Amino acid sequence: MNAITADFINHRDASSALTIVPVAGRIGAEIRDISLARDLNPATQSAIRAALIRHKVIFFRGQTDLGDVGHEAVAEGLGAPVKHPTVPIVAGSRFLLELSAREGYGASSWHTDVTFVPDYPQASILRALVVPEAGGDTMWANTVTAYADLPVSLKQLADSLRAVHCNAYDYEPSVPYPGGDDSARFRDIFVSKIYQAEHPVVRVHPESGEKSLLLGHFLKHFVGLGLADSRRLYALFQEYITRPENTVRWRWQVGDVAIWDNRATQHRAVADFGTQKRTLRRATVAGDIAVGINGEKSKALESTNP
What we know:
The protein is an alpha+beta fold. It has a single domain (3-300), classed as Clavaminate synthase-like (Double-stranded beta-helix). The chain is 26% helix and 24% strand. The protein is built from eight helices and 17 strands. The protein has helices at 3-10, 42-55, 67-78, 101-106, 143-149, 152-160, 182-190, 227-241; strands at 19-22, 29-32, 57-60, 81-82, 97-99, 123-130, 138-142, 162-166, 196-200, 202-204, 211-213, 219-222, 247-250, 257-261, 265-269, 279-285, 299-300. Strands 1, 2, 3, 4, 5, 6, 14 and 16 form an eight-stranded mixed β-sheet that branches. A four-stranded antiparallel β-sheet has the order 12-8-9-17. Strands 13-7-15 form a three-stranded antiparallel β-sheet. Strand 1 (19-22) and strand 2 form a beta hairpin. The chain is globular and about 50 Å long.
């Protein structure tokens, strides 16, 4: 057991004003006895942010009275909300994105949101409107403990690497959506403008100072390496991220809200719900430009129309 894991298990936020219960050993906590629609005073917002930085993803059950306006208010309490670069927002909202069953299948591989831009979101807030009777869970992985688990030689290699991320990755879900061929239309929207960014593979968290692996399915290739070598190296590092001990899995109920630190996690939908309906809405909060351990920052590369 490394020091990060031991600290997470042994310290259950006794100093917090919130009721916080860890869900898994290395990542994830449920915050109980709170209404996001009614209880968001400045002190509570500060406590929620502290829990988010510590636990990487936090869950709230039973927020059925939140609504779109309240959802947007939660996002504004964490920072400056931003729209997705290519996907249209929900009609009548200011910046909410809707994820239907189709997009749930499309997101069924491990990723960090919107890493094809240099200042990708710092946090995402996901709210469940319709959930399957069975299946359709979401998983998150701790990219900080994954980096901590690397042998010294692999840490040194990761520290030296940069990688190009792009939204025009192979957007075919690991399990094809059984409800039709809508995935092709969604992919066309997703890549209606091509974005690319170059990131350090190890970024330093601007608030906690923790080091984490910055990978996920938007990664196109490592700088200086061809596609074949990039795929092999990606698989090696990614395996540390998605080890079961670095993950948490959430079984959605209507009204649940999940907030995750997008700078210290990856996530994926579990595509096991067939043609059952699954509808969630997401807000994202603007992030900062990632910085590597040597101080070198992420940068935008040329963006194009396809």
